[in-house]
Amino acid sequence: MKPNFLLLPFLSFLFLLNSCKEELEVLDEIEIKDPQAKIESLQDSISFELDGSIYTFDRPLGHGSGNAQVNLDSVTDKGHPDSVLYWREFKMMNSNFEGIGIRFVKKYSKNQLSSINFMSRPTNVLELYTKGMQPYAVDFGRFNTTDGITIDASLIDSNSNRLNLQTYLPEMRRWLTSIGYDCQENSSFEITNLHKLSTGGYLLEAKFSANLFYFEVKITADKKVMEEAKPKRIKNGYIRLRVD
């Protein structure tokens, strides 16, 4: 039987068509299964819902670290001699010049820290960003007995007033306050992902809800100073930050 020479070009065309299709499928599969390029391109962002409005912060203002004494005494103002509080802070703003700051706070024994540029710093800073649920450091600056997260925000309300809010008790430890250590009992902060970046550092993702407070100073009937908390509830919070 003689070969059908008219059929050969058609079969060659089908072969090339299938080869191109398979190659495109492979490329699509690579793009789907290798999201690293997409992760590297993501920008820092913090957002949440408050009073029915969505607030988004996408302009980094910088980051820093700090130390403080631990377990401060309300009379002597002295802390535990063998411990140090360390925190890492990230600040952002939006187009309305509103701002937000997130701190990751942890207590350490002095022998767990190294001195770098006159600051005590843990060897493994990634301990601050452990995946899973994180508590709120509700007495940050007041007594420094708790680890966890703090949030500060400077927001403009519907009356164009600027409110300075925080998730923790006020710093003046000798003054009374209307909230206690249970002020974030109905709140949560969960680190959901920590992606290692080829450019260095990590991309952290978290979701959260929290009570933010601003404080009004009043004098009680027995002549004591009281900082009365005015709460604002934030929900559906999302954080994406480059951390190191």
Describe this structure in words.
There is one protein chain. The chain has 244 residues and is mostly beta strands. Strands 1, 2, 8, 11, 12, 13 and 14 form a 7-stranded mixed β-sheet that branches. Strands 3-4-5-9-10 form a 5-stranded antiparallel β-sheet, with no helix packed on it. A two-stranded antiparallel ribbon has the order 6-7. It has helices spanning 7-33, 36-41; strands at residues 45-50, 53-57, 59-68, 83-93, 99-109, 113-116, 119-122, 132-133, 148-156, 162-166, 176-177, 188-196, 202-219, 225-243. It is 14% helix and 47% strand.
Coarse structural class = mainly beta
Terminal residue distance: 74 Å
The poorly predicted ranges are: 13-17, 19-32
Average pLDDT: 88
Order of helices and strands: HHEEEEEEEEEEEEEE
Percent in strands: over 45%
Rg of Cα set: 26 Å
Count of helical regions: 2
Q: How many strands, which pairing sense, and closed or not: the largest β-sheet? A: 7 strands, mixed
Query: What share of the residues lie within helices?
Result: 10-25%
Shape: globular
The tally of beta strands, per DSSP, is: 14
Brief summary:
It contains two helices and 14 strands, in the order ααββββββββββββββ. It has helices at residues 7-33, 36-41, and strands at 45-50, 53-57, 59-68, 83-93, 99-109, 113-116, 119-122, 132-133, 148-156, 162-166, 176-177, 188-196, 202-219, 225-243.
